[in-house]
Amino acid sequence: MQYDNNIPIYIQIINSIKADIINGKLKIGDKLPSIREMAVKFKVNPNTLQRVYQELERSNITYTQRGTGSFIREDENMVGNLKKEMATDVVENFIESIKSFGFDNDEIIKVIKERLEESK
Fold this sequence. Notes:
Blueprint: H1 9-22, H2 35-42, H3 46-58, E1 62-65, E2 69-72, H4 76-99, H5 105-118
Antiparallel strand pairs: 1-2
Helix pairs in contact: 1-3, 1-4, 2-3
InterPro entries: Tscrpt_reg_HTH_GntR, WH-like_DNA-bd_sf, WH_DNA-bd_sf
Keywords: DNA-binding, Transcription, Transcription regulation
Organism: Clostridium neuense
């Protein structure tokens, strides 16, 4: 994984796990790999993954069973909410970026419509 120096690594890993949930690579009820396994996968310190797992649990995305591990919460609404949350973040970042180029709302809509037409 390529890390963006402007965003804390633990947040980038959280977003990667959320994306895996949204696109079905991780399904509700799935057991997450151990912290050590994930630390090796993401090439980070296990303490970073510990924080990731704590944040995922605090956000009600996962839950922990003592002695068994961490699991994706079995809640279809959570997946839909994650999808909407991540889409909103992408759109907000896009709007902020394109407005910094001097585009107004009408121009932004025109660019999006043109691109959607091209991608049909």
